[in-house]
Amino acid sequence: MTQPRPSSRKRWQRPAVTTVNAPKPKGSWFSEPAVKKAMDFFALLPFVDGEKAGRPLEILPWQYQEVIRPLFGWMRKDGTRLYRELYLRVARKNSKSTLCAAIAGYLTFADDEPGARVYAAAVDREQAGEVFQTFSDMVKASPQLNPEANKRVRLLRREVEYQPQRIPGAPARFHILSGDTGNKDGLNISGGIIDELHAHPTDEIYRLLNQGTASRRQPLIVSITTAGVWAPDSVCVERDEYTRRIAKGILKDPAFLGVIYELDEGDDWAEEKNWIKANPGLGVTLPKDFLRRERDKAKASVSAQNAFRMKHTNEWMQQNLRWIELGLWDENAYRTNEDGEPYITLESELEGRDCYGGLDIGSVSDLTAWAMVFPDSDGHVDVLMRFFAPEGALEEGKQNAVIYREWQASGVLQITRGNSTDYAYVREQIVRDAQRFNLLGLNIDSLFQGAQLGAELVDEGLNVATMRQGFLSYGLPMKEFERRLNDRHIHHQANPALRFCADNVVVVQDAAGLLKPAKDKSRNKIDGISALVMAFDWLARGEEADPRVLVI
């Protein structure tokens, strides 16, 4: 039987961190036949997608040398596997899912474990199903393993079943397990594959799989992931640090194999020569041209840069990010005429045009922002902003009092009477704008007086929805906002108050890469940008309510 050994490339990229050289327990030994057995099984598996579909699986040199050989070759004194856990962090598009599927298949079909129970685990069923489906498709396409050729194999919707000829008892099974699976207690686990560990909000799945292996002879739990948002209390960061401490000799855990591919400290993420450090499959599973295109996109956007660096250079990123570069913001100030000269779209020129609104309501003594966006057929958007603050905000010694007085003098800030925001005044301004422009819908935040003011605007005949301040609500419109900003299609008329807000915006990012503004982490007011993003929500979603709540 031909093994899928990586003979075509003698050299491979070494990982930045590995525990393979950590001291082994007394009596440990290396078994070449065990490695051959694993490779023989992998030879039965074909590629199932891409240009290599149908061809025998290729184990890449780095996979063979840094993962397969140590994982399956090192034995304990009693002849069982030394390693009971694998943690592998490597950038995307380096054949992680294929490697996961092959290992899961071996644990199900070839590990000689009576009644083997192997699980593909992830945060949700869709993610968990990726590795499972990859292996299921491999079995279907394998001349030796597909159910028509091998009567001991059954393929079900969420389960692969195999009845070994020489092992009595219950068949081996490969299942899907996710965070939204029902009762997960009492699992008797021989193998587990945890995909994208960085996306797990808790350690529930990781702990569950490990605790479920207690009665097994040589269990194996595999966690494969890219980097994500750095969170000191996350299970992925904990495994990352655990790997480093073992590699440095600070901790001892001979049953743990940790492998990390990442840039060296100080490396430039945009420099091509550094990419191989995080992408050992570069040029084989991952074309350089693809990374170049993604790198060029990333240079134009803070969030895109962070996504690139997490996914493709495998760097941990901080949750808090400065969002808007003022140079890019200023480039978006004006439209240009046929001669390429900038000009301001006058408020009177917007009369009668379709528009959408976003209202960010300040606290009783704070800034309130009302944004209207006017899209046109060529993808450009004209922005009309109105800001409100109470008289009390102009008092000597109050934060931003000086700049508020400047904005009032220039006409970009409307001052309402009293020490608290006059919401009736704000409502009347919105109604006047709705009568002057074709306001198709507006979002209003649900905090402070949002619900009451929204209901009053509905009574005025307006289409109003409340918008939650979460990643789900803000993620899509923030992407839409970024896209148009990068295309120089947001014409905000160089409003100084809005520019002030743009310069202050700090965003937070969740594990999925979604963004939302963070008022508590921003250095000053961001209300204008929050209102603008809320208005962009209508452009991003259309007039669908979810996840907004329409005010009836």
Beta content comes to: 15-25%
Instruction: Tell me the number of structural domains.
Output: 2
Give me the side-by-side strand order of the main sheet. Answer: 1-11-4-10-9-5-8-7-6
CATH architecture label of the largest domain: 3-Layer(aba) Sandwich
What is the CATH class name of the largest domain?
A: Alpha Beta
Q: Compute the number of helices.
A: 16
Derived structural class: alpha/beta
Radius of gyration: 29 Å
In the CATH hierarchy, the third-tier topology of the largest domain is known as Rossmann fold
Roughly what percent helix? 25-40%
Corresponding CATH superfamily of the largest domain: P-loop containing nucleotide triphosphate hydrolases
What would the principal axes of the Cα set say about the shape?
elongated
Terminal CA distance reads 69 Å
The averaged pLDDT comes out at: 89
Largest sheet: 9 strands, mixed
State the low-pLDDT regions, or none.
Answer: 1-9
Q: In total, how many beta strands?
A: 24
